[in-house]
Amino acid sequence: MVEITREDFCVDEVIKKLKQPKVGAVLVYVGTVREFSEGIGLEFWDDNEAVQRLQEIEKKTLGKFDIEDVVIMHRVGLLNITESILMIAISASHRGPTFDACRSIIDDIKNLHKTWGREVRK
Question: What count of other Cβ atoms lies within 10 Å of the Cβ of residue 79?
């Protein structure tokens, strides 16, 4: 599942959706806006191409790793320092594939950020 939202997300709700009888691991990653020189935050805009790229990342991940499901939630708008930007949640029978899949998704999304977002400075 891929979701783009202006609102913050609830980690507990996503975890609840991913728990299944054959799932032994649910890994959740939350990326936040960190402090940077003269910065007040990051901005991401509603962009259909970005949504399509996130869906491609989801599809690639499901095909490449031994996982049950993946959720990618990304916020848009102006996000201030300490606010959540991104949540990735992955379920699998065992923990190993969840870590590998999460790192792959993060790397792909970092590349997407180069064209989808910008730093907002004072």
Answer: 22
